[in-house]
Specification:
- It is built from eight helices and eight strands, in the order H-H-E-E-E-E-H-E-H-H-H-E-H-E-H-E.
- It is of the alpha+beta class.
- The chain has one domain (2-261).
- Strands 4-3-2-1-5-8 form a six-stranded antiparallel sheet.
- It is globular.
- The protein starts with a helix and ends in a 6-residue tail after the last strand.
Length: 267
């Protein structure tokens, strides 16, 4: 009887430990890239509207036709070293406002993504910080890239199979930042074949490496189905805002890169 009790307590502790570790893994990976519209907003709608209006006014004041804007879906102190933002999108001028072109994964099936155009406030809904990262291509590039994004060519590099930490050098899966990298590569090189894009990226582009041990790599997919590891080897690579910046720089397309602070009078 005593042995059974000890065994039961051991198994219970093991289950609790696995659940706790699973939550840790889920948070650790989810802080890197999170391409979703769903979740609880930290800030009120009034604050989000105000933040969105500030970004729009800032871009309009600089006569920006298109920009890459990034938000942080987790508190920055929880992000891995060297990563400040988690989700990025193309912002294209539409009159006095901007349309936001995103890749989001589904909710009924979180392994399938779609291309969604929404508003500034909707883009910011899951932000956890009071700033955004902005990448501004050169003015002539902005105009040409905006036309590209509004054309049928934009969706040609979309891979609907979603992974939270997709490998940008592999064609099998995609997240928001990898999709944006592929759009930029297709635009810069006039190339739409996925294998050709990945081959060229592999020769000239170094993505961000996520440090992870054996347990992380092998247990993570059981914790969250979006943590697909099939496109990774011994190392885990993904795409970040900094990678997008470095690609634009390498192709001589970048004008400015900076962080825009946001403030609000609303609580």
């Amino acid at each position: 009887m005593r042995f059974r009790k000890k065994l039961l307590l051991f198994l219970l502790a093991l289950v609790v430990g696995i659940i706790a570790f699973g939550q840790y893994l889920n948070l650790e990976y989810r802080t890197v890239i999170a391409s979703t519209q769903r979740g609880d907003a930290l800030f009120s709608r009034a604050v989000l509207d105000e933040y969105g209006a500030q970004i729009i006014a800032h871009l309009n004041a600089s006569n920006v036709e298109m920009a890459i804007v990034s938000r942080s879906g987790q508190p920055r102190k929880k992000l891995p070293e060297g990563i400040s933002f988690t989700h990025s999108a193309f912002w294209l001028r539409n009159g006095d406002s901007y349309d936001v072109y995103n890749l989001y994964h589904g909710e009924d099936n979180r392994l399938i993504s779609s291309l969604v155009t929404d508003t500034a406030a909707d883009f910011l809904r899951l932000t956890r910080e009071h700033d955004v990262g902005i990448l501004l291509p050169k003015p002539s590039v902005q105009i040409a890239l905006a036309d590209h994004i509004k054309s049928v060519n934009y969706a040609r590099v979309h891979q609907a199979n979603y992974s939270l930490i997709s490998n940008p050098l592999d064609t099998r899966f995609q997240n928001c930042n990898e999709f944006m990298l592929d759009v930029l590569a297709a635009f810069a090189w006039g190339e739409y074949d996925a294998d050709a894009i990945k081959f060229r990226l592999a020769t000239s582009f170094k993505p961000t490496e996520i440090k992870a041990g054996f347990i992380h790599i092998n247990i993570a997919p059981f914790i969250d189905e979006r943590l697909v590891m099939a496109d990774h080897g011994k190392q885990i690579f993904t795409t970040t805002r900094l990678d997008l910046q470095e690609f634009l720089e390498s192709e001589d397309m970048l004008d400015m890169a900076y962080v825009l602070p946001l403030s609000s009078v609303n609580k």
